Fold:
Amino acid sequence: MPRNTSIKSVLIIGSGPIVIGQACEFDYSGSQASLSLKEEGIEVSIINSNPATIMTDKVVADNVYLLPLTCESIEEILQKHNIDAVLPTMGGQTALNLCIEASNLGLWEKYNVKVIGVDVAAIEKTENREEFRQLMVDIGVGVATSKIANSFLEGKEAAQEIGYPLVIRPSYTLAGTGGGFVHRKEDFDAALNRGLHASPTHEVLVEQAVLGWKEFELELLRDTNDNVIIICTIENFDPMGIHTGDSITVAPGMTLSDKCYQDMRNQAILMMRSIGTFAGGCNVQFSVNPENEEIIAIEINPRVSRSSALASKATGYPIAKIAAKLAIGYNLDELQNQITKTTSAYFEPTLDYVIVKIPRFNFDKFKGANKELGLQMKAVGEVMAIGRTFIEALQKACQSLETGRAGLGADGRQWRNLDEIMDSLEHPSGDRLFHIKDAFELGVPLESIRKATRIDKWFLVQIQELVHLEQELRRYQLNNIPRDFFMTLKQKGYSDVQIAWLLGNVTEDQVYDRRKELGINRVYKMVDTCAAEFPAQTPYYYSTFEEENESISSDRKKIIVLGSGPNRIGQGIEFDYSCVHGLLAAKECGYEAIMVNCNPETVSTDFNMADKLYFEPVFWEHVREIIELEKPEGVIVQLGGQTALKMAERLEQLGVKIIGTSFENMDLAEDRGRFSDLLKELDIPYPRYGVATSAEEALQVANEVGYPVLVRPSYVLGGQGMSIVINDEDLEKAVVNLLKNLPGNHILIDHFLDRAEEAESDSICDGEDVHIIGMMEHIEPAGIHSGDSSAVLPPFGLSQAVQDKMEEYSIKLAKALNVRGLLNIQFAVKGENVYVIEANPRASRTVPFIAKAYDVPYINIATKVMLGVNKLKDFTIERKLKGYAIKEPVFSFNKFPEVDKQLGPEMKSTGEAIRFIKDLHDPYFRELYNQKSMFLNAQ
Structure:
């Protein structure tokens, strides 16, 4: 059936600011869906309050509304536009809940808007735990024994009837919020109370806990003809008991028998058909008893989920794009496979490789947090790696994490305390994978590890084999490793850094040179959805060690953009936003734009965003070999946050051109001590400071500059390790702790300007001219990280003299640092005195906020300046903001109720929202301003 031609205008509801459990995978899905609908000539309107996303860009939609996600905002849009249909399945739980609320208020009916991609009844069936359970019973799908409870008494009765261990699952929540396991009767009352309060309907499911069972997810698509295909089967490495967002996952399933897989497929299709007649995407989660392969259904999500982005990147099948077309009436056999361009979308992807996803945690930002993983998601991001085997993909994923690991162990960071290791295996945290390897190295039997972790034996055997390989490698020296064995090590995912560490007394470069002598080269394979059965038209690659290389370098001028890796606090979606616009600008300038990144949630790793995508770790060895193959004109490191920046020195040493500001000048800004010396030379005021490499030196500096002091390391992002101290004892502790975690780092000791205001400027420099794109004034005072502060654009309380000084210092610094491209500067303002705190000659988290607030193509201009294609005088930069824009940080403290929520110099927010006000009399602004007055006047 061709598309429904009566649908001419669609509203897509976004997911709002990034929080734990609902991250930038919905930016990817929403962007893809919007572009898919625009291809059909449909007018697309988007509502989302997150400024840091591509989804809220004009390149994606016809009408973008950066408004709070409320029914009032929805009605405002419906009054302005003749909306025919609403698509709520691309914005996570937030969008679905808002769709239900608007439906209950009669908004869709009032404005004659059709809900597409799902029906409200389906949402009710899947989100209401009792309705879902009863439906599964009715259609003959197994479920765990459970009872619904709407009160404390009902919950107690349910627990007594079912017995322990139990699971508490609140209705209508995201990422397991409020849920958890109860192993003992003594812990039940508190867990039940928590669950009832977390549910907006004050309802929980009290369920039998199937701890230790295996967990699987299936991603499905269905069209209006009731055709259903399975896009991807994902197996959790971790057993039931850990939220799937916190689990290591693998695709395709590794340990499923064919019979069990076919049963699971049939049940998933039956479940999808039973919840409504909608056309679109669906995610189904199952649990399987490892003893007898009994299958029970855990849940079904009639929308794009976190796993949909992963499945899309894993298979090359753009789920959100196709789901959007199905929602407007197309059938699967009428749509084209986006990779092959010759087969139909009614073609289940086939993988001839393995993908591994590993979640990224940020417990370091939540001091005192309970790190044990359970039903409530705690990960802030994730990485995905592609390899020919599970173990190769697993090692590549470890290299992608940005935690300083060179792979799965073999890097000098192993644990050696057996009691601590065994405790970690039984009480899983984000490091359990590494501790499994540590346990094998200490000789713990496989069966003991299996009993402690309940992880399938097949996975454990794969990890154990690494220990045997390492024992064999230690028999050799670099010059006598047999070529076949060397090749085996590389095929098992070992990095050159790991091999060097295992051999001892050799460097990474020496290992690299030796394997090149032996002809052991990284080759690139195409992600094609069909195991090479049909030729692929889309250049989407991963690396491995075989003979044939499928990535052929063109003779075009090329630019490589290095991505930002996994989302984490301090380096989030805003850097992916910058990378995407960098790619688009490079393409506009006639370059072949090549992307390197490993984050499956993001738009930058969409296969049709760059001219060529390498889904690879942003890890030196991988980046180096891509550069050697592609021979680009240069590499852009300014857009990918600290992940890309830390490559700059090695790129410089290799003779690779860094596009934009030079390594030397970026390093000058990053090295806190050298930067302060530059400020002194330029006669720019700055807090008194000193640099220390030991606690003794730090004490001497602190007593010279005067307490309170701000202690911070060089070369970090998101305020990592920063603290404010007021005496020698606290200073000594802070410095010792920093040097333990960041050995060899220079520690900057600044006099802290108590009760100062903080402000920022963002500018572009082309080497001659400097254009200030925007200035912001913070609500919170200096001492609270800028990422955790509400900020107002343009400044509302700074005198013209202060703003003139900020502009003067910005121009001075841009020229002194010889900036080519972006520059963010942070100021402390005390009275009429302006001090420079730091300068960042790179993309910062403020970039998308300013771009959206002023409606300025910020990164596009900066990239063209970096490339030397344009000068600033070539652009007319107009600011379209009438009134003020406010950046509101958003936190995920509900995931860590036990931690200190006090804000300080180390960033803790997970995302941000934008709010526009007409003038300073706005009640929302007045409330914020009162907070500021309170801060500044505090004694």
Summary: The chain has 31 helices and 33 strands. The mean pLDDT is 91.
